[in-house]
Design brief:
The chain is mainly α. The chain contains 2 helices and 2 strands; from the N terminus they run ααββ. It has a two-stranded antiparallel ribbon. The longest helix is centred in the N-terminal third of the chain and has 36 residues. The radius of gyration is 25 Å and the shape is rod-shaped.
């Protein structure tokens, strides 16, 4: 009888741990997708590879060049 209770407790603990790990993996996958979907700023090469051109016409101390056209249209370029 005691072995059954211990075995049931071990199985329940393993099941709960599995649910926790699955939830953590799902949360990490969502975070990784959101992080890689839109970079904070691009390199000139990334802008051009995405089909755009680097626009340096509106440069000032407050503005960085932007990527015009393509996949990264409107994003800042470092």
């Amino acid at each position: 009888m005691r072995i059954r209770r211990v075995l049931a407790a071990v199985i329940a603990t393993a099941a709960l741990a599995g649910v926790g790990l699955a939830g953590a993996a799902t949360a990490n996958a969502a975070t990784a997708t959101a992080t890689t979907a839109t970079p904070a700023s691009l390199t000139p090469g990334e802008c051009e590879q995405g089909g755009g051109t680097v626009d340096r016409s509106n440069l000032s101390s407050a503005h960085l060049p932007t990527c015009k056209g393509g996949q990264f249209n409107g994003q800042e370029v470092d």
